[in-house]
C-alpha cells in the first residue's frame, strides 16, 4: 500500500525493519537551529535519518529569495539518495507533532515528483507517548546510497511574479498560514516589513491540528478549506515557506488536492519594495 499524506504509528511500527521504508526526523526550532539535531541524538525513531531544515530542506539564501528558499532539486535528490531513498521508497517524515517541518519535507519530495511520502500523524510526541521503541545517539547506521530521480512536481510551485499577475486578475487566492497578528501586520518579529500579500485570507497552520498533535478529521478540514475557495485557486504561503506546507498537507489529506504553494512566501515578497503590501 502507498501512503501519500499521513501514516499512523501502528503502520510505521510494522515497517520499521522494511528496507523499502525510509524514515526522516525533521525536528527543528526556528529559535535555535541546533535544537533539532540535539533532540534527534537524545532519542529518535529507530532507523530514522536526520534532516537539517536549514541545510537539507532549504536552499542557498541570496537576501531576496526568502528565509527558506527551495533547495536546488539535484541537491535535495542527492540528500534523499544518500539516506537510502529511491523512486520505490515509502518515505515517512516526522517532527515533534502539530508541526510544520515534516510537512516541508513532504512538500519537497512531491516537488521532485515522489508520491510515496507521508507525515507521521501526531509526530514524535505521539510515538513516544505510545511507548514505541526509541533509538539514542548519533546516526551511525551504514546506509546504502541510492539514486533518487527527479520527476515532474506533483504540486506546482508559484513564483512571486506569477502571484503578482494572477491576484490582480483574481485567478489565484493567497492563503497565509501565519498567526493572525502577523497577518494583520500588528507585529512582525522576523521580517523587515509587516503585513500580507494583497487579497490574502488568513488560515493559521496550527488550526489544522487537534490538541494532541494529530491532524483534525478530513471532513472538518475539507469544510474549512472549501470556504477559502476552489482548491485550484488556493496558493499557500507563510513567513518563509515552511508552515505553508502544513496547510498544503492538510488540504490534500482532506481530499482537496490541486492547491499550490508560494515557496518564497512573505520573506521573499517583502524583500522587494515594489511589491504591494496590505495590512489589517
Any chance you could write out the topology, listing elements then pairs?
Layout: E1 6-7, H1 9-14, E2 21-25, H2 35-42, E3 49-50, H3 73-82, E4 90-94, H4 101-111, E5 117-120, H5 123-129, H6 160-169, E6 173-176, H7 180-184, E7 201-202, H8 218-226, E8 234-237, H9 244-253, E9 260-261, H10 265-269
What brief labels describe this structure?
10 helices, globular, 2 domains, Oxidized Rhodanese, domain 1
Gyration radius, in Å: 18 Å
CATH architecture of the largest domain: 3-Layer(aba) Sandwich
Count of discrete domains: 2
Order of strands, main sheet, comes to 1-5-4-2-3
The residue ranges in which pLDDT falls below 50 over 5 or more consecutive positions are none
Shape category = globular
Largest sheet: 5 strands, parallel
Structural class: alpha/beta
CATH topology descriptor of the largest domain: Oxidized Rhodanese, domain 1
Q: Kindly provide the name of the CATH class of the largest domain.
A: Alpha Beta
Ends distance: 46 Å
Overall average residue pLDDT: 97
SSE order: EHEHEHEHEHHEHEHEHEH
